[in-house]
Specification:
The chain is mainly β. Among the domains are: about 1-120, Beta Complex (Tailspike Protein, Chain); about 120-190, no CATH class; about 485-590, Sandwich (Immunoglobulin-like), CATH 2.60.40. About 5% of the residues lie in helices and about 45% in strands. The protein has 2 helices and 59 strands. The chain has a 22-stranded parallel beta sheet that branches. Strands 16, 19, 21, 24, 28, 31, 34, 37, 38, 41, 42, 45 and 48 form a 13-stranded parallel beta sheet that branches.
Length: about 600
């Protein structure tokens, strides 16, 4: 008689932690189909006469019948299997197991080909150890099952444990490289290295129940890198509904890496992600799109996120919306540098208490900053010392920025609520501004800002919240909506009013109409004397304007004739003029 080896007589099922599965649920079904909805009849005896109901229950890893471990049998060569834990959460599934005949080589129990559901210590391709499924087994899965897997998988299908201790990096990597939709499920997923997202997919968790945390040894890299293959069309990304904690040296949470030409991302949605610890650059989202690459991020939405760190969008494309986000911590809340051919970035209805200010626009057109609550909790000198800065330092200009209906409070830290330079047609309207009235300004318009439009804002002292007269430093060209004091050039003549009252000044409205203000007087002036000169942006566009106004000639009150020229000079035409009233006079610059 030949010797026989002793075989384990009963199948054993394991939980995700490698321990025998207790009070688990086992489903057996038609091969390559969902065993829950497509079950096979299972029997407790080899003759297939004692049916068993599903799900089969486990105790300490064994299937039990009448208080003792049991074997199970099916009348099929192949079958699918799904194993859930005592909370009915997935432990593993496999599309095509193979039964073993009870008469084969003396083996009298049911076996499973490729039983990869339990946790095992396997070597990755790079030689590192990881806990999860051997990726080689994926090559044995039938094409129909692979197609289904590419549509939707859970990271637990690839061995993720989500207990906050076991390293789930490779399980997540294999999931994201195999399927178009990846479910993070409940739990705390620890990762020790960057996770690349390279194809368009859904990568979603279960809100507050899902957390991804980096280990203490996580290196100086982004936590996630979105980097599609060149010359692809990676539309409809969706990343949402999980938290992120950085315990290592991560540089950013999400890096959109368009490092070579012909890479771009469109229709990306990043939603309801909570990043509750800082990263080294202070950037929650970082778009890396080096020149001369002229592709970028297009038609995308960042919405309802909460982050320690802001949005750094370098060479961003068209139609990007950032909606209802909360940003705090180091760095600037929103940095916008648009491609030369791009426009339209909308930032609205959020809260920003970032240490580097709220908004820094350095290039682009049609950036809208609207409905934001902004506070500056610390002093800083970056971004031109302003909560909102629109300034292109490298030449050219930023066009058509709109700063609308925001509440911006410097809290006495940065000098200005808004700073403009090399900005054209910036609209500032409907805002409430709080600044240090002793040393700062609500709005600072530098010399190279053109055609700024100041609308109906309200201005406050940050220290006591009291409304004050606007503090607007206006060195710009053609600023609309703010009174400017004029400098009298006629010797011996002075203004008869006080600044802000009847001092000599000028104002332009949105229709391009310039209004003059003030009373001036002096020694008798000869015809042809220039009283003052209007700067560029406040001059008649084509023709000269001759005006008749009240005044005095040889100290006798009467009519005074003046001429406003296209070069800006305001010239007295009436000889021996000694007094001029310029109130209520206006002309068009168009």
């Amino acid at each position: 008689m030949a010797a026989l080896s002793i075989q384990v007589p009963y199948p054993v099922f394991y939980d995700r932690d490698g321990l025998p599965l207790d009070n688990g649920n086992v489903y057996i079904g038609i091969a390559n189909l969902d065993p829950v909805t497509n079950p096979l009849q299972v029997y407790y005896d080899e003759a297939l006469t004692i049916p068993a109901s599903q799900p089969l229950k486990t105790s300490n890893g064994y299937l039990y019948r009448n208080g003792t471990p049991a074997q199970i049998y099916v009348d099929a060569v192949n079958f699918s299997i799904l194993v859930n834990d005592n909370k009915n959460l997935l432990v593993y599934s496999f599309p095509e197991g193979t039964g073993i005949s009870p008469n084969a080589s003396g083996v009298a129990f049911t076996g499973f080909k490729g039983q990869v559901g339990f946790v095992s210590d396997l070597a990755d391709a790079d030689g590192s150890d990881w806990i999860g499924f051997d990726p080689i087994d994926l090559n044995t899965i039938p094409r129909s099952a692979q197609d289904k897997m590419r549509d939707f998988v859970s990271v637990r299908d690839f061995g993720a444990v989500a207990n906050g201790i076991v390293d789930d990096t490779n399980a997540i990597k294999y999931a994201t490289s195999s399927a178009s939709s990846v479910d993070l499920d409940d739990g705390t997923f620890s990762i020790s290295a960057n996770v690349p997202l390279t194809v368009a997919k859904s990568f979603t968790g279960n809100g507050k129940k899902t957390l991804i945390q980096t280990t203490g040894g996580f290196g100086a890299t982004p936590i996630f890198t979105i980097s599609p293959p060149a010359s692809t069309d990676p539309k409809n990304w969706r990343i949402s509904d999980f938290g992120v904690t950085n315990n290592g040296s991560a540089t950013s949470v999400f890096s959109i890496n368009l490092d070579v030409a012909n890479k771009y991302v469109s229709k990306l949605t990043l939603k309801r992600v909570i990043s509750n610890s800082a990263v080294s650059t202070g950037r929650f989202v970082e778009l890396s799109n080096p020149i001369p690459n002229l592709d970028g991020l297009f038609t995308s939405v960042f919405e309802d996120n909460w982050s320690l760190g802001g949005y750094y969008l370098d060479n961003v494309g068209d139609s990007v919306i950032l909606n209802r986000n909360t940003t705090t911590g180091p760095g600037v809340g929103y940095y916008v540098n648009q491609l030369g051919t791009a426009a339209n970035v909308i930032i609205r209805d959020g809260n920003c208490t970032s240490a580097g200010g709220a908004l820094n626009v350095v290039k682009g057109a049609n950036v809208i900053f609207e409905g934001m609550q902004v506070e500056c909790p610390v002093a800083f000198t970056g971004a031109n010392n302003a909560a909102v800065s629109v300034y292109r330092p490298s030449g050219g200009s930023v066009y058509n920025t709109k700063i609308l209906n925001n509440n911006i409070n410097t809290q006495g830290n940065p000098l200005y609520c808004v700073y403009l330079n090399y900005a054209v047609q910036t609209v500032i309207d409907g805002n409430e501004f709080y600044c240090d009235v002793g040393s700062g300004a609500h709005i600072y318009i530098d010399a190279n800002a053109r055609d700024t439009i100041i609308g109906n804002n309200k201005y406050y002292n940050y220290a006591n919240g009291l409304e004050v007269s606007p503090i607007i430093v206006n060195n710009g060209i053609g600023t609309v909506g703010v009174w400017n004091n004029a400098t009298i050039s006629l010797a011996g003549w002075t203004s008869q009013g006080t600044p802000g009252e009847n001092a000599l000044g000028f104002f332009k409205d949105r229709d391009g109409t310039v209004q003059l203000r003030g009373r001036v007087a002096g020694a008798a002036a000869a015809a042809g004397s220039v009283l003052f000169t209007l700067p560029v942006g406040f001059r008649p566009n084509v023709k000269d304007y001759q005006i008749s106004t009240f005044g005095a000639v040889s100290f006798v009150r009467g009519e005074v004739i003046m001429l406003v020229t296209s070069t800006g000079s305001v010239t007295i035409l009436t000889n021996n003029t000694t007094n001029i009233d310029l109130n209520n006079f206006s002309f068009s610059t168009r």
